[in-house]
Specification:
mainly alpha; Rna Polymerase Sigma Factor, Chain: A; Arc Repressor Mutant, subunit A; 2 domains; 0% strand; globular
Amino acid sequence: MSSIEENTKIDTKFCGNGGDVDIKLLVGKAKAGDRIAFNAIFTLYKQRIFAISIRYLHNEQDAADIVQETFLNALKFLYKFNEKSDISTWLVRICLNLCWQKRKHIAEKNKFEVSLDINYENEEGDCVKQVVSGEAQPHDILEQQQESRRIRDILDSLKKKYRELIILKELEGYSYEECARILDISEGTVMSRLHRARKILIKKLSG
């Protein structure tokens, strides 16, 4: 399987009058078969997809693989993409589905390896504590790597529908509207699921 190439600098022909990248133009060109345009899409969104993947899988190589798989799938099915939609929303949806499939595959073989990269652990622990307690700087929960690991394990134990929302809304900062578009559910459902997910987290963290 081939890989997607990153453009270190996006061609100005894909930019509007203000100099910013014209996403709709970029997508239109990519759908028409312009591989340079698609590589530019990869450049724009690969870090966002990697961030979500590492939250899900806790392993940099697995996350990097998901990034490639996400964009290869996007390239394969780009002809189906509705240009009235948001390309980033579509890419994140593909990414989440691939991450979930990857986790199931690893769990079935009982080979789930957790990365010990403390930067990711501390970042995630910090965000989750803010969700649970509302504190601005929850240093107490970051005092020990073991505690951060426990929080991450609790997140991993959540049902798919709750874990995805915690990752998107609380860890990656997506709005309710964006979460609704990505997951193809109503904003009301997003809010009710997130409320339930927070309650579960609080209960498990205090247990």
